[in-house]
UniProtKB/TrEMBL annotation:
The species this protein was found in: Kribbella ginsengisoli
GO MF annotation: an example: kinase activity
Histidine kinase domain location: 213-433
Lineage, top ranks: Bacteria, Bacillati, Actinomycetota, Actinomycetes, Propionibacteriales
Signal peptide: none
Protein name: histidine kinase
Membrane-traversing stretches: 131-155
Keyword Cell cycle: no
UniProt-annotated location(s): Cell membrane
Keywords: Kinase, Membrane, Phosphoprotein, Transferase, Transmembrane, Transmembrane helix, Two-component regulatory system
Catalyzed reactions: ATP + protein L-histidine = ADP + protein N-phospho-L-histidine
CDD domains linked to this entry: HAMP (cd06225), HATPase (cd00075), HisKA (cd00082)
Chief site of localization: membrane
Length: 433
């Protein structure tokens, strides 16, 4: 059922419940008030008769003066004389007030009967019931028509939103709702819808650019593979050994380059889809020392130092290994054939004297080198995908992947100034359990 129909039916059901209850309440109040007014009128007339008797008003004048519409006055004197109309039969819907006059020469001891026919009240009650029924039915009908017409106007923004969503699904981009008022529920919804479209189209444009850049990056190793393979085929079996080995080495290098790029793209896809971490206790200093030993084997001319306490944290060891390997490889490439790379660990408060601490609230790890460093204006740009630094030899995906892994752990990875103020690059990795 549509929202318009649900709102209309719900409102009518509410009215069907409220109107009868209101009608019954109004009728009950009317009947009670009518009874009260009738009793007040009869008692008031009886009190007036007592006052007139004290003023020694003649019986005929007394009856005439207390007479009123709807009231029958019967005065019976002590001698049995009856003045006024005979009283109404009590059994036929009559309300009576009977009193004995206590003053007056001729009225002392006389009996006064005031009678009122309640059939008039019952008729008025029946008329009120009919009026309430007709008014309720008319209110339901008018409300139904008003809701049908009003819902079209009130839900027009939702219809516009539906039309826009369908046009976007059909491939037409760029449309927006652009609400004139943003302080209403529908206005805020429309504004949020526009913001969502801006974000989606921005991401779509970004993904298109990313795919184009990735294809461009892949084209280079694929072209190298194709060229080397075609050259090998053209040279044939009689090709010189050195030339053949050179082409085979090119095939291996370019295939590794393409494989690395594809693997990095897959890692980014996993990060975007929501990375699942396999957390377990990890000794961070031991992990950093292992990666430092790996880099020493690859670059014997580098000096690599790992300082700070041994810190244990609940984390995914494979992902942390990728982060550290990326940071150390970047530092090695940035410092050329000889350089100093330092890995400094500390707890979240910066106290590097804290020893092994299980379930630590968070850790800080800085990887710094004595290379040319990263300019402040480039420190955020280098974390964008497929962005290469001046000395970068990779695909431009290592730092974005490392930051994605860090944020999946509830931490972050940023480029900073070296804490000791010396020239060079420094990357701060923060991790939380």
């Amino acid at each position: 059922m549509s929202l318009r129909r649900r709102v209309t039916i719900t409102a009518l059901l509410v009215l069907l419940i409220v109107l009868p209850i209101t009608g019954l309440a109004v009728k009950a109040i009317f009947d009670a008030q009518a009874e009260r007014n009738l009793n007040t009128l009869l008692n008031g007339r009886a009190q007036l008769a007592q006052q007139l008797a004290r003023q020694n008003v003649a019986p005929n004048n007394l009856v005439r003066r207390i007479d009123a519409d709807g009231i029958r006055v019967t005065l019976t004197l002590r001698n049995g004389q009856v003045i006024g109309a005979p009283p109404l039969d009590v059994d036929k819907g009559t309300r009576q007030v009977k009193t004995t006059l206590t003053a007056g020469q001729r009225t002392r001891g006389a009996t006064l009967i005031l009678s009122a026919d309640t059939s008039l009240l019952e008729g008025a009650s029946r008329t009120l019931r009919r009026v309430l029924f007709i008014a309720g039915a008319a209110a339901l009908l008018i409300t139904a028509v008003a809701l049908i017409l009003g819902m079209r106007v009130a839900l027009a923004p939702l219809d516009a939103m539906t039309s826009l969503a369908r046009s976007i699904a059909a491939g037409r981009r760029g449309g927006r709702l652009q609400p004139t008022r943003r302080d209403t529920e529908l206005g805020r919804t429309a504004a949020a819808f526009d913001e969502m479209l801006d974000s989606l189209e921005g991401k779509e444009q970004y993904m298109r650019q990313f795919v184009a850049d990735a294809a461009h990056e892949l084209r280079t190793p694929v072209t190298g593979l194709q060229t080397a393979a075609e050259t090998l085929l053209q040279l044939g079996p009689d090709a010189p050994t050195e030339r053949r080995e050179e082409l085979e080495l090119l095939l291996v290098r370019e295939s590794r380059r393409a494989s690395t790029l594809v693997a990095d793209l897959l890692e980014l896809a996993r990060i975007d889809a929501g990375l699942v971490l396999r957390r377990q206790p990890v000794l961070l200093k031991h992990l950093a020392q292992t990666q430092a030993d790996r880099v020493r084997l690859m670059a014997p001319g580098h000096t690599i130092q790992v300082t700070g306490p041994e810190l244990e944290i609940q984390a995914d060891p494979d992902r942390l290994t990728q982060i550290l390997a990326n940071l150390l490889d970047n530092a090695r490439n940035a410092t050329g054939d000889h350089g100093l790379i330092e890995v400094v660990l500390s707890n979240a408060t910066g106290d590097s004297q804290v020893a092994l601490s299980n379930h630590l609230g968070g850790v800080r790890l800085i990887v710094q080198d004595n290379g040319p460093g990263v300019r402040p204006e480039d420190r955020e740009r280098i974390f964008q995908r497929l962005v290469h630094g001046e000395r970068s030899r990779g695909s431009g995906l290592g730092l974005p992947i490392a930051r994605g892994f860090a944020r999946a752990h509830g931490g972050d990875l940023i480029a900073i100034d070296r804490p000791d103020g010396k020239p060079g690059a420094a990357f701060l990795l923060t991790l939380t359990p």
